[in-house]
């Protein structure tokens, strides 16, 4: 399919925003397939098994931000993108704060998507290690080569149409697995009784989580939706505003419950199926092997691969778009469509290589994603959200806010979270404070273009 659709990818916009012509059915499934990644099935299930139902706050905070995005941000983003033919978030920040805003935007976006791409290489490696006994490091390299080549030759058109297939496989697979686990466990009641007999009934409570952990999820994974480039690109790729809005809402009504179910499967695996002698990292495979015959086990491995592939190519492409659109294009306005198409593909190689390095150096699927999203949220959330609705924010305030939040968050991460504080608790407040302070001190330098 990749090679077939590649023949129809003729222009720069075809490759990066699917020609801005995607209809309602594929847009729903591409939103859903991208939202439910390999991390959802592996990382969230592992968290459910190890930490309990309190991890549902990942999805509670996510759903809150989905509603906010759909109600207040989506139409504004679509309108600006349609009017100015935007390809990346960098196009917006350049319009709002001037061309100098592209650089901190690119750095923030690229950091997140390199981390999120690396996360999918780790997921592929885990699958190969468990199913075929492949060395974990070798598995990361295999995942890297496969996903890089697929994205290089594809582009967003290919990604979206493959998401149609992968999305349906994934949704049906998770629902089938949840039903099988519930039946095998005898329902939620026996699991609750067993947890109580162990003195661990708190593991089945949604409140089994600290306020600090909830805030980390809210300010990283959840609000990342507001500055998520692959999401913005799909909003612009839809054939019209109504398709974008309806497609996003419908898809999230599916994707968020799939995440909730996944955490619940992890909990049921521990207390319903009583899979206690297992490495939490491998709980997905343990559950699948426990409730399904071999043929269905293979089907569930394929569903997992579908989740990884659907997200990986989207993440790699989103990061690559920032490089080609916000670094190459502004400095090479004389390039024609074919040269820009070539640079789009070369940028895919750059992002995937950086993702490979992160996959080899940062352990843990969810940790890798949280680290990447924290950097982006720290640098971009305040200037983007306030810039969309508050015309008084100045160019200087916006750019300074981006650099301040990003630099502080990166420093805090490298320093090892001093005082036990996550980088998001430092970077985002600093970015917001700088934006307000500089705007108030320099009220006359206003950019109202956006």
Automatic annotation (TrEMBL):
Major place of residence: membrane
Gene3D superfamilies associated with the record: Sodium/glucose cotransporter (1.20.1730.10)
Transmembrane regions listed in the UniProt entry: 21-45, 57-74, 106-128, 134-153, 165-189, 209-227, 248-271, 291-320, 341-362, 368-390, 397-415, 421-442
Bilayer topology term: Multi-pass membrane protein
Compartments in which it is found: Membrane
Top-level taxon in the UniProt lineage: Bacteria
InterPro entries membership: Na/Glc_symporter_sf, Na/solute_symporter, Sodium:Solute_Symporter
Pfam families, sorted: SSF
Family indicated by similarity: Belongs to the sodium:solute symporter (SSF) (TC 2.A.21) family.
Protein's recorded name: SSS family solute:Na+ symporter
Species of origin: Salinicoccus halitifaciens
């Amino acid at each position: 399919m990749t090679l077939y659709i590649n023949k129809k990818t003729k222009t720069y916009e075809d490759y990066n925003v699917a020609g801005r012509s995607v209809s309602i059915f594929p847009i729903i499934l591409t939103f859903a397939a991208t939202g439910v990644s390999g991390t959802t099935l592996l990382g969230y299930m592992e968290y459910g098994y190890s930490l309990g139902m309190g991890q549902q706050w990942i999805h509670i905070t996510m759903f809150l931000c989905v509603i906010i995005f759909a109600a207040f941000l989506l139409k504004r983003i679509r309108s600006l993108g349609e009017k100015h033919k935007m390809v990346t978030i960098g196009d917006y920040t350049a319009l709002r704060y001037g061309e100098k805003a592209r650089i901190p935007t690119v750095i923030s976006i690229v950091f997140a998507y390199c981390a999120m791409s690396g996360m999918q290489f780790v997921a592929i490696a885990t699958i190969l290690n468990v199913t075929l006994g492949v060395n974990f490091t070798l598995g990361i390299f295999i995942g890297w080569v496969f996903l890089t080549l697929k994205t290089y030759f594809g582009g967003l058109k290919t990604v979206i149409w493959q998401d149609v297939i992968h999305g349906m496989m994934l949704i049906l697979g998770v629902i089938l697995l949840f039903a099988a686990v519930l039946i095998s466990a005898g329902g939620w009641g026996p699991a609750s009784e067993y947890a109580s007999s162990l003195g661990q009934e708190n593991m089945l409570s949604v409140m089994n989580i600290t306020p600090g952990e909830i805030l980390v999820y809210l300010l990283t994974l959840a609000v990342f939706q507001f500055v998520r480039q692959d999401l913005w690109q799909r909003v612009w790729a839809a054939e019209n505003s109504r398709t974008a809005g309806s497609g996003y809402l419908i898809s999230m009504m599916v994707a968020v419950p799939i995440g909730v179910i996944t955490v619940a499967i992890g909990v049921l695996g521990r207390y319903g199926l009583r899979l206690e002698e297992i490495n939490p990292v491998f709980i997905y495979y343990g559950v699948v092997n426990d409730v399904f015959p071999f043929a269905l086990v293979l089907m569930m491995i394929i569903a997992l691969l579908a989740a990884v592939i659907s997200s990986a190519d989207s993440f790699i492409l989103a990061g690559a778009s920032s490089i080609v659109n916000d670094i190459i294009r502004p400095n090479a306005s004389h390039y024609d469509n074919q040269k820009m198409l070539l640079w789009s593909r070369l940028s895919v190689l750059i992002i995937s290589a950086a993702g490979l390095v992160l996959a080899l150096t940062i352990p843990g699927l969810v940790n890798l994603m949280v680290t990447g999203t924290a950097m982006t949220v720290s640098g971009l959330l305040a200037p983007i959200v306030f810039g969309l609705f508050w015309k008084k924010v100045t160019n200087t305030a916006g750019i300074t806010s981006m650099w301040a939040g990003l630099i502080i968050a990166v420093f805090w991460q490298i320093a090892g979270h001093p005082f036990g504080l996550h980088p998001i608790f430092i970077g985002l407040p600093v970015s917001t404070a700088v934006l307000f302070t500089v705007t108030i001190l320099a009220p006359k330098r206003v950019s109202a273009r956006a």
